[in-house]
Amino acid sequence: MSDTTAISGPLRVAAIVLDIEGTTSSIDFVHEVLFPYAARELPAFVRNNHQQSAVRSLLADVRSEAREPEAATERIVQILLQWIKEDRKATSLKALQGMVWEKGYRDGDFKGHVYPEASRNMRDWAAGGIGLYIYSSGSVQAQKLLFGHSEAGDLRPLIRGYFDTRIGPKRDMASYRLIADTLQLSAGKILFLSDVAAELDAAASAGMQTVQLVRDARVVRGRHRMAADFDSIPVSLIAQ
Q1: What is the pLDDT of residues 29-64, one digit of tens each?
Q2: Nearest alpha carbon to residue 112 among 148, 137, 160
Q3: pLDDT tens readout for residues 115-171
Q4: Residue 39 structural domain
Q5: Which of the four pLDDT bands, split at 50, 70 and 90, describes residue 240?
């Protein structure tokens, strides 16, 4: 891991893996719009759809993780609401939240927040041949909804692939090795952008290049190159 915090020149990469919360998008959008909406709408969604196969499978996962195999629907609702309060990174919760958010996006209750300079640079990077990928604790479905219904329009054509916690925890080095293997790239040709130092530590341990986004004073700084926004991250395409 580098001790420096400065970006001295263009970072030569074949692909960029992007975190969402605090990186492409505002933390406040997630915590003040998405989470409250899910907390408000999730109970009715679970009660009305618990017999659907996809939902039933996810509820079984909730029972397993909560170690309450006999939990009834109302008990599951209580568990999910508690997990939302804890910001628990449970794959089953994230998938259910994604199903709820789909309705909110579709009905126009909100649009996905993406920083203007982030969407602009994503367009430029993609046009320059750099592969863009998302890695977030939110479900792949939720990721696609956010970028598909963003304030900057539909950004999904820019993104070549999505990863969530099904590939592994974001603070686990093995997750980033799996991402590199999936992309069929050496880790050193991949740049990972996140605001969370522990995630960047794991990516750097796997051999990836890293930059920490420090968009506000809430960010706990690590020992990585830092940038205030995407405009401050010079990149150039390297041959794969």
Answers
A1: 988 999 899 999 999 999 999 999 999 999 999 999
A2: 148
A3: 999 999 999 999 999 999 999 998 899 999 999 999 999 999 999 999 999 999 999
A4: 30-106
A5: low
Same domain, 160 and 223: yes
Q: Is residue 3 situated within a structural domain?
A: no
Into how many domains does the chain fold? 2
Q: What are phi and psi of 212, to 5 degrees?
A: -95, 125
List Cα–Cα distances, 76 to 47, 116, 139, in angstroms: 10, 38, 19
Backbone φ and ψ for 18, nearest 5 degrees, come out as: -110, 130
Q: Which residues have C-beta within 8 Å of that of residue 81, sequence separation ≥ 6? A: 39, 42, 43
Residue with structure tokens 């994604």?
98
Q: What is the CATH number of the domain that holds 180?
A: 3.40.50.1000
- Quote the pTM value: 0.85
Query: Does 126 share its domain with 180?
Result: yes
Q: Could you tell me which of 236, 209, 237 has the C-alpha nearest to residue 225? A: 209
